[in-house]
Amino acid sequence: MKKRVKCGVALAATIFVLSSWNMGMAQESADQLFEKGLALEKAGKSEQALELFEKGLMVNPRHYRSLLASGAVHYSKGDYRKAARRFEELVAFYPKDTRARVQLGHAELALGSIEEAKNVFRKILIDEPNNVSALIGLGRAEYLAGDRFTALDTFKKALALQPKNRSLAETVARLEDANKEYLRASEEERRLRVKSAVNNAIAGATLQAARMRAQAEQYRTPLDAETALLTIMYGTPV
């Protein structure tokens, strides 16, 4: 009996060691495939690189760098749905990874899922209020949603954290100019509408007065004409 127990323990230990060794080899293989894929991506061979990243994920579906690289290649090719799927998997495996969450937000934005993108970026900012990438992503989402003034405030927050970011500074400057022009155009449009309404009211009143005068002139005496005018304006007198 003791012999059987010892054999059973030894067998279990051997299986555990072999399983651990296989997992290590799988991880190493995913790493190797990723490194080869990365070299191809740097050489401008994105399709071949993507094949290796995908092979790496077949070996290890949780491989962080392969998931990130696969999503990035799909995004650069304009296949935003596949990119979003990869980034969703990445966030599912690594829910607190900021880089993965930011990439998911941008993929959602590229798909036109503006509200989903805003939610992703806002959740990041709850954990990291000073995350510039999330602020820029949220600013873009707000602008695309038509919230131009809110977007400007968000971009300004990002610029305050990265004052030397030239691209961000140019974005803020352009948006400030655009918002000023928008306000001027809105004011001019409002003024023209008011002017048009006043002119229409005056024209309507003038036309009505002319009609009443024409009807009043049909009567023979000034007294009859006055009575007719009052009747037209206020109804038949008692």
Describe this structure in words.
The protein is mainly α. It contains ten helices and no strands. It has helices at residues 2-42, 46-59, 64-76, 80-93, 98-110, 114-127, 132-144, 148-161, 166-216, 222-234. Helix 1 (2-42) runs antiparallel to helix 2. The longest helix has 51 residues, at 166-216. It is elongated and about 65 Å long. The termini are far apart. Mean pLDDT is 77; it is low at 2-26, 219-225 and 227-234.
List the helices and strands and how they pair.
Layout: H1 2-42, H2 46-59, H3 64-76, H4 80-93, H5 98-110, H6 114-127, H7 132-144, H8 148-161, H9 166-216, H10 222-234
Briefly characterize the structure.
The chain has 238 residues and is mainly alpha-helical. It is built from ten helices and no strands.
What is the end-to-end distance?
A: 125 Å
Order of helices and strands: HHHHHHHHHH
DSSP helix fraction: over 70%
Poorly predicted runs: 2-26, 219-225, 227-234
Question: Main sheet, how many strands, which sense, barrel?
Answer: none
The count of β-strands is 0
Q: Please state roughly what percent of the residues sit in beta strands, choosing from under 5%, 5-15%, 15-25%, 25-35%, 35-45% or over 45%.
A: under 5%
Number of helices: 10
Mean pLDDT score:
77
Shape: elongated
- Cα-based radius of gyration, to the nearest Å: 36 Å
